[in-house]
Amino acid sequence: MHTKSLFFIYAIGCLFFCITITIIIIPLTYKTTTMAAPMNQTFYISHGSPTLSIDDSLPARGFLKTFQQKVLPEKPKAILIISGHWETSEPAVNAVSGLSETIHDFYGFPEEMYRLRYPAPGSPELAHKVKQLLHKSGFGSVGVDKKRGLDHGAWVPLMLMYPEADIPVCQLSVQTHRDAAHHYRLGKALAPLKDQGVLILGSGAATHNLRKIDRRGGGSVVAWAHEFDSWIGKALAEGRYEDVNDYEAKAPHAKVAHPEPDHFYPLHVAMGAAGENTRGELVHHSWSYGTLSYASYRFTEKR
């Protein structure tokens, strides 16, 4: 066979190989690398005082700064955060196009805290999915706020957990005139988002009575706070979600620990989104001011 013929056959073979790679293998690789991994767990974070944003003496700050390394190495595709600092009459989500505004909704704190920014991208797409899922589960009215940014219940923990601010964030409100079971049902409705790589994150405080805190910063944990915090931790560890939904009747000192439920209801959303046969695992525990618990939980399958 002539040399030119052999070269022609070789060239045709190489061309066919390149076309095969381009048409079949490269698209498959692209699809694999861009497909979000499911989130098999949800979280409730106690963000406590706004000074968590600057105070390195708070153990919870160190916990959140190592969250990616020690707790959840998988990077979420997006984050749905439920903050106790956004109250509405009916469920509502923000749907910000572009970067989210950082809302400094606190007063009388060090000036440097008001200069902090967390410019995470908003996610109208996730907001739309949240609204669809809630409608599908029977929640008739769901508000969409296209301007509201992230309050400190959202951006303070997120700036420590994901300081790059490169993950789209959508925030969901709480309804303090409704009960814990209502928020648990919200979570159950939103559970499918986990399969799409969305991290569902409740943000509040395991105990939250600002009138009872010891601003002198000394001493041991007071009895009522310890007893409530311990009861909740044990109930979650045992997966007794019905008891946690009925915490006002069953938990000791419930109305002292939470005179208002705004900082506790995000836990119920995260708990509901975890799904059946799950439990709450304590991933961090510390105290400040003798009454403010920074207990934080991961909801994951029972072992």
TrEMBL record:
GO terms for molecular function: metal ion binding; oxidoreductase activity, acting on single donors with incorporation of molecular oxygen, incorporation of two atoms of oxygen. Its cofactor is Zn(2+). The chain crosses the membrane at residues 7-30. It holds the Pfam family LigB. Residues 42-299 form the Extradiol ring-cleavage dioxygenase class III enzyme subunit B domain. Keywords: Dioxygenase, Membrane, Metal-binding, Oxidoreductase, Transmembrane, Transmembrane helix, Zinc. Coiled coil: none annotated. It comes from the Eukaryota. Belongs to the DODA-type extradiol aromatic ring-opening dioxygenase family. PANTHER family: 4,5-DOPA DIOXYGENASE EXTRADIOL-LIKE PROTEIN. This is Extradiol ring-cleavage dioxygenase class III enzyme subunit B domain-containing protein. It comes from Castilleja foliolosa.
